[in-house]
Write a structure and sequence with these properties.
The protein is mainly beta. It is built from no helices and 13 strands. The protein has one domain (2-152): outer membrane lipoprotein receptor (LolB), chain A (Clam). It has strands at 2-4, 7-9, 11-15, 21-26, 31-36, 41-46, 51-56, 72-81, 84-93, 96-102, 108-116, 122-128, 149-152. A hairpin with a 5-residue loop joins strand 3 (11-15) and strand 4.
Amino acid sequence: MTTANGHDNRLHMLFSAKGQHLRVEAAGQSSYVLIDGHAKRMNIVMDRQRSVMAMPFDPDHLTGFLLSESAHYTRGATATVAGLTCTTWTVDTQQGKGTACVTDDGVILRARAAGQSPTGESGTGVMEATAVHYGPQPESVFALPAGYKVMGLTDLPHRAP
């Protein structure tokens, strides 16, 4: 379950074993997000339009929601979330501050963040796992669908100021 700026969402999140790939699906939506942390790319897959919006991705813009190499972490207390033990960390980046409760194997079970989004908007968000299932993920879960048109930010129509 996530809450961003007062709006609740139920999300289904899939992580690759090494945590470099993330797939986020929002309940009731026909689109989903694929993040490649290693390549620093984010793709919004829009099934109805059979298209993909490709854009750069900076993990520091999701303080507390994804681990970042450039963030500063301060260890806190342990907690239990969704039946799993995690360590609470304070996360500090140039874009904002947050907390993340992370299992020893790197699964983020709870996160709270305040800062600036990739679009430049300020906001706050909370995420908490309600269930965690371990198992292999097929690579296809993190791949772009075949035959979809890939667009970049420069392909968006520009509006007059």
